[in-house]
């Protein structure tokens, strides 16, 4: 996903990774989501999670089953751009938690 | 039966390029399962997978693209339910995906056909089961919940 976000820093320890992310409010995706009312698409967050997981675990991560994916709070990229993503994995199971400050944004439980 | 082409879909969907993940919609009202007095709604939506799609990466449409396609099928379904023209292209928020099994990811040139069936309408949430096929092969199947906030005029009237 071109220009949707950039990684500021990452810490990887055993089965857990913490990635600090900055969203790009000028990303082309906001032209269509939605015109005059930019909201970060939930599925762009999921794709970002997959890309970050692939990067920190150095494998092409593909989701087999999304057991549960919850979007708690829509993000206006003009107001909020700094996010923290925590990834964990145990065998084929992974979890992801995306937060902005104290606010949970996305929670994921999936198999890869 | 209602059928919409890629241009007509935009009357029922707030999304615009590069985020439009549908190119055709058909709606039928399928018996029997009545929902609180409403007839069961089933929507079929299509998408021809292209390399230029926002969610196309590494030779396939990603899981996220597949689910965005499913979610937008629900948005059109919500738009078709709205009897007021002004409320047709209402913004809905995907709240949850549950038990979504992805058997494989579609390649460029493949035609997706997605069946969305409304299984529950709870307050402002619409729960659907969605299944995407390529030809007759099921490539993904699961449940989605979309939250549709009330529109401003309705809020004021309450």
Main features:
heterodimer, A: 112 residues, mainly beta, Thiol Ester Dehydrase, Chain A, six-stranded antiparallel sheet, 13% helix, globular, B: 158 residues, alpha+beta, seven-stranded antiparallel sheet, two-stranded antiparallel sheet, disordered C terminus
Shape of chain A: globular
CATH homologous superfamily identity of chain A: Hotdog Thioesterase
Number of helices of chain A: 1
Shape of chain B: globular
CATH topology of chain B: Thiol Ester Dehydrase, Chain A
Q: How large is the radius of gyration of chain A?
A: 14 Å
Name the strands of the widest sheet of chain A in spatial order: 1-2-4-5-6-3
Describe the structure.
The complex is a heterodimer of chains A (112) and B (158). Chain A is globular, with a radius of gyration of 14 Å. In chain A, a hairpin with a 2-residue loop joins β4 and β5. Chain A has a single domain, classed as Hotdog Thioesterase (Thiol Ester Dehydrase, Chain A). Chain A is built from 1 helix and 6 strands; from the N terminus they run ββαββββ. In chain A, strands 1-2-4-5-6-3 form a 6-stranded antiparallel sheet, covered by helices on one side. Chain B contains 3 helices and 9 strands. The C terminus of chain B is likely disordered. Chain B has a 7-stranded antiparallel sheet with strand order 1-2-3-7-8-9-6. Chain B is globular, with a radius of gyration of 15 Å. By secondary structure, chain B is α+β, with helices and mostly antiparallel strands. Chains A and B meet through α1 and β3 of A and α2 and β6 of B. β3 of chain A pairs antiparallel with β6 of chain B, so a sheet runs across the interface.
